[in-house]
Amino acid sequence: MRDVTRLPDLALRRHGGSVVAASDESFAGKENLIRPGKPGFQAATFDGKGQVYDGWETRRRREPGHDWAIVRLGLPGVIRGVVVDTAWFTGNYPPHAAVEAAEVAGHPSAAELERAPWVTIVPRSPLQGDSEHLFEVPGERRHTHVRLVMYPDGGIARLRVHGEPRPDLSVWDGLGLDLAALENGGLVTACSDAFYSSPHNVIAPGLARNQAEGWETARRRDGGNDWLVVRLAGRGRVSLAEIDTTNLIFNAPAAVTLTGLDGDREVPLLPRTPLRPDTPHRFRLGPHDPVDHVRVDIHPDGGLARVRLWGHLV
């Protein structure tokens, strides 16, 4: 079975996701659903509403119905799997949940989203308390929003929506763009090592705030080097490469090499070039034939905060 959780979380707040509406959030805010990291908990911590939970919790329903929350995906795309996490919710988790999805253009309001044509991607399914529930999602349909439905009420700590970004690139017609960026449809398709953190971090939006928000490998003892392969947003030519080692002070690579891939053909982009710790590097690249993937080799190991590959689609 493919581990879909290795794919980017399209809903993550750090990736631009937002919980735009919810039926109720009396005990704990809807925004917690898409926060980075594992849910936390401290027993016997009470505010005016009760025990504090790092998740979304609704009131006890006294009438028929169910609760729901609508999430705008920060990275619209094809959903491969959904994780519904009830961490720390034991006597107050919902017994069942479902997930729906929709593709809505533009910047719709919450009212417009409620009227959107939703399709079920995870049918009504049983849940357990304090547990992660993984549901694989078939199909190739693109979605921009998901709706988490719980029956009838209760608390859910996190919602993870793993998949492949498929943005609308028409806004970039005639302009240059970061061909590697997750938000533009880039994806890490192969990686030598992800011991400390996910390689997808290097093409995530924004700057890495700390070492954990980059990609870092284990220490190599075999004389080889670590690498990753980025599928570009589309076939294109890269003019500028940004290799950022910010926050990586004693574990930055000594050097980097960039190689374009176009089918079975390799296109040299950047020869082995020294890197400095905790430094954003920018390298102008010479003219080259179009490529659809770029291999990033770090020598011998270590970590990168971000990789940006600026260029033009062909």
From TrEMBL:
> Does the record bear NADP in its keywords?
no
Q: Does the keyword Hydrolase apply?
A: yes
EC id: 3.5.3.4
Q: In which pathway does it act?
A: Nitrogen metabolism; (S)-allantoin degradation; (S)-ureidoglycolate from allantoate (aminidohydrolase route): step 1/1
Which Pfam family is one of this chain's hits?
Allantoicase
| Keywords, in A-Z order | Hydrolase, Purine metabolism
**What catalytic reaction does the record list?**
allantoate + H2O = (S)-ureidoglycolate + urea
> A Gene Ontology molecular-function term?
allantoicase activity
Q: What region holds the Allantoicase domain? A: 16-165, 185-313
Q: Which family does it belong to?
A: Belongs to the allantoicase family.
Check the record and name the PANTHER family matching this protein. Answer: ALLANTOICASE, INACTIVE ALLANTOICASE-RELATED
Protein name, entry field: Probable allantoicase
Q: Which organism is it from?
A: Nonomuraea corallina
Gene symbol?
alc
